[in-house]
């Protein structure tokens, strides 16, 4: 049958339930970007920013454009050009369509039956663009959660597999990234240690993910710019060099991955002086591999503003925002706020989010070990 031809009454609305889900912004705390290079990371989501998706049953399948992010009406030609130069060509509709396609194909390939009712899917987000806070995957993650509930297949798709589905949707659009962000968002909050070692990835198709107590983290601060640089350029040269067997990149990336292991130990011991050292080392290694031109002057300045007053600082992702730790307490935080204000950066306390996995999610956790 032609996929465009639907049987009579197939799209008729039967179940009136509406599904809504949030997916939070992510901070790569230690070990990033080694998730792209069979490494290890520690990551967590934050309550400061999130993406939201809403799925409503409907007669026809509709992906609703966002009134701002998917704008197609402009005041003038100059206004159109201004928007494209500042926000690019991409909104969230393409992300929603991609996850719908990948989700459907995954279910088909794995013998998971889906009913033929239709829906309307919409989204919103307050995650600042190009801040390395994983805004795109947050939209995809929230939409996937809606699809899991609408088709009642949450119990059939393991938690460990869901980040791969999200990443595959983004790969459809040419987005180059690792699993770290998607794991943190799928796990719905909390602190997650991730091991992407080759032996695990080759055998399981995903990493080994361990939930840690979010309360092990000290007070942290998020620094970002209102007009950040594009984080999408950061991986390119390093990835090629790593694949080509560049010894400096391979050894440096292995050291970055090791920071996540040392960080887990430091967190469990609440050794925050060691944590400060590890955060700074993480950024220094990234800088040595990628170089200042690739990282961007503004991104480097955000780190240096924090370090200037003795705080630890590193990128949250690939650039655009920085996570800072002030080991000396409130007086140091006040200095950080003053320096950020002088430099034109925004600084806010990180709002931690405990894990929000449901009982049905927890039942899908695999006991597989490499």
UniProtKB/TrEMBL annotation:
The keyword Metal-binding does not apply. Keywords: ATP-binding, Nucleotide-binding. Residues 265-334 form the GHMP kinase C-terminal domain. The keyword ATP-binding applies. Residues 99-189 form the GHMP kinase N-terminal domain. It holds the Pfam family GHMP_kinases_C. PANTHER family: WITH PUTATIVE URIDYL PYROPHOSPHORYLASE-RELATED. This is Probable glucuronokinase 2. It comes from Camelina sativa. The gene is LOC104735465.
